[in-house]
Amino acid sequence: MVERVRSGVEGLDRLVEGGFLKGDVILLAGNTGSGKTIFSTHFICRGATEQGEKGVFATFEENAETLKRNMLRFGFDMEKLERKGSIKVLDLEAIKGSGMSANIDFILNALKEMEAKRLVIDSLTAFLSACQVKFEYRMLMHLFYKILKKIDCTSIMTCSIPTGLDTLGLGIEEFIADSVITLESTVREGQLKTRFLIRKMRGTNHSRKYHEVVIAKNGLKIVPFSMM
Ligand SMILES: Nc1ncnc2c1ncn2[C@@H]1O[C@H](COP(=O)(O)OP(=O)(O)O)[C@@H](O)[C@H]1O
Ligand SMILES: [Mg+2]
After folding, report:
1. Where are the domains of the chain?
2. Most Cβ neighbours (<10 Å): which of 53, 95, 171, 214?
């Protein structure tokens, strides 16, 4: 029996046979403002509160304080969950100068210490920018991916949407992405709309349709496209 991990995002699990596969790495690609950080917060916070799975949220783009303030608007009290030891927010901006392998060590230590089963890296683009040498970062990511699998840690890594979606432009997606999900924002009829698509999910008979992303008071949800 394969083990499925609930995503914590309303409307999503039913599109992917009940959830992500345990230990998978999911690349979440999207434009700026498309909801990547909110989506990732659902995964970590609901994982802790509803599934009893501890999680680590490594933030590179927003500092921990801003992230917590913004997510509190949706009812996610990250500060409180941190105090309880259910989640940990790693503010990696602070150690950006120390390079990618130090960041990987830092994350793995936090996962190990907490026995966490969920990880978010927001964003992978910023995370990789700590390493200038492409050859080195491919090697490090390969190793990192293998360790995450070994410890059964399900991970979401966000990245900016590139033009032409055949590749995410990272140079590592062919071996680290068990799944690729995109959030695409466009202006239609004078309104900003975001659509959701599962482009790939290994081992899963997933939805192949576009769905709509709705961000409201209590966070982000995926709804059928026909309701747009
Ligand atoms: N309190 C809120 N209520 C409704 N929508 C919000 C709220 N806060 C943020 N948003 C929407 O979410 C977007 C930011 O989502 P975020 O997950 O940070 O995007 P990304 O990480 O992809 O850049 C904002 O641009 C806005 O459209
Ligand atoms: Mg973000």
Report:
1. 4-227
2. 53
Instruction: Count Cβ atoms below 10 Å from residue 52 Cβ, excluding itself.
Output: 9
Is the pTM for the entire model greater than 0.70? yes
Ligand 1 atom with minimal separation from the 34 CA = 22
Report how far ligand 1's centroid is from the alpha carbon of 163 (Å). 22
Q: What's the residue count for the chain? A: 228
8 A C-beta contact, residue 26 and residue 155: yes
pLDDT of residue 164: 65
Question: Residue 94 has what pLDDT?
Answer: 52
4-227 belongs to CATH 3.40.50.2300: no
Ligand 1 pocket test, candidate residues 40, 159, 215, most atoms within 8 A of CB: 215
Q: Could you tell me the distance, in angstroms and rounded to a whole number, from the CA of residue 93 to the centre of ligand 2?
A: 14
Mean pLDDT of the chain: 92
